[in-house]
Each structure stands twice: as C-alpha cells, then as structure tokens.
Amino acid sequence: MSDATLNAIKDNPDDFAVQISDQIESFIVSVTEVAKGDDPDSAVPYLLLELSQLILAGGRLGAHEDFVPVERYEPDIGPEPDVDEMRLKLAALLEPVDVYSEVFDPYEPRTAPVPCRISDDLVGVITDLRHGMAHYKEGRVSEALWWWQFSYLSNWGPTASAALRALQSLVAHVRLDTPLRALDGLDTDSDAGEDDGLLEKEAGAVMAAEIGVPLGMQPEAGRG
After folding, report:
1. Rounded to an integer, what distance in angstroms lies between the CA atom of residue 213 and that of residue 217?
2. Which residues of 130-151 are buried (b: 16+ CB within 10 A; e: fewer)?
3. Are 55 and 160 in contact (CB under 8 A)?
4. CA distance 38 to 33
C-alpha cells in the first residue's frame, strides 16, 4: 500500500482501520505511562478503564468479517521491542494483587483454575498489539488488521479479558468492602496456600489504602 493510500485512510477519522489503530495506540501509550509508577494509587482503576476500552476494539475486530492480508507471507518487522522492564515495573506496582486465578477455557469441562499475573498479561497484550502496529505504521494496513483480528481471537483477546476480570474484581472488592479471600496465597511461582494469611492481609491493606481512595472509598477510621 502506498503512502498516499495510507495517508488517505488516516485522514478519514471514520475509517475502521483508523479507529482501531487509535484505540490500540492509546492503550499502549497509557499502559506505558502507568508502568512509570508516577501515580500508583490510580493504577488499578486506570488499567481497568484502559482494558475496557481495548476490549471494545477487540470486539469490533472479532465481529468483523475476516481480514485478508495482501501478501501471502508476513513481511519481516524486525526484532520485537523488549518488554521485560515494563513487566517488572508493573509487577512491582501491582504487588501483592498482581497474581490472580483464571480458567483458561470456560467451555472446557472441569478445567482447573491456573495462577496468572496481571503484569504478564498486560505486556503480552502490548507485544501482540505492537506487532500489528509495526505493520500499520509501514502502510501495511490489511496486514495489521489481519494480525490484530487473528491475535485477538487466539491470544490477546482472552488474555486482556482475563486481566480485565481480575481488575474488575479488585475494584468490586474495594467498593463492596469485602475481604480479598480469593487469593489464598496464590502465586505463579509457588504452590497455592503458601503464606495464605500474610498475602491476604497485605493485599487487603494495599487495596484499601491505594485503590480505595481513588475510587472514592473513605478510610476505615472515618466510617460511622
């Protein structure tokens, strides 16, 4: 696709590709800013909002007819950007509520929950999105849309949905003032049940002090 064609698409704000790319670019930029840790108290509600908006873009991709790339084989986009630093920053920012339990496939009978990390999910989603964005910025719009659609159905869609559910649950626990018993010491690096009470206590304290205030919750001492 020529630069003139790509510019024509970008000049039309109602174009589907422009809308999707704008939503994806906004998500990447926003999560990158959250990872800097400048406003840790607002991290959870902000990530909840950003993931919710991204899921809308994914839903539009999933509902659209299949995109067909112009080229038979995917052009090389070069090395993928390193996300380890972002992963570590997000993990530190979200500790100790980073780990949550998820069922991989809700339609698979008797599927056991597995421990996941919101920080891993976020950088995994961003990696998929950046891959498509590299094609988009090179003018390969059909390739970008195909990749975003395919990876939404196969990878980043389920991952983003799981992370969104975890964040929504955190916000619900705070707003409804319910104990965070679901963690039970869950850790991706250890057996469930290890240091149960400590992790639950720490998670509850973090949620009340750092997540509750941005959501409009009153400190415990101030409740009647």
Report:
1. 5
2. bbbbbbbeebbbbbbbbbbbbb
3. yes
4. 8
DSSP H/E element including 217 = none
**Contact indicator for 34, 46 with CB cutoff of 8 Å:** yes
Q: Say which residue the tokens 């995109």 belong to.
A: 67
Q: Which of 188, 197, 34 is nearest to 117 (CA)?
A: 188
Q: Could you list the pLDDT tens digit for every one of the 224 residues in the chain?
A: 445 554 554 556 469 999 999 999 999 999 999 999 999 889 999 999 999 999 999 999 999 999 988 877 787 777 777 899 999 999 999 987 999 988 877 788 877 888 899 999 999 999 999 999 999 999 999 999 999 999 999 999 999 999 999 999 999 888 887 766 645 445 555 444 444 444 444 444 444 454 555 555 444 443 33
Residue 116, SS3 per DSSP: strand
Reported pTM: 0.75
- Phi/psi at 100 (nearest 5 deg)? -145, 170
Q: How much is the CA Rg of the chain, to the nearest whole Å? A: 19
| Rounded Cα distance, 180 and 185, in Å | 11
Nearest alpha-carbon partner for 15 in 38, 23, 99: 23
Amino acid at 12: N
- For 149, residues 6+ apart whose C-beta sits below 8 A from its C-beta are 61, 62, 64, 66, 67
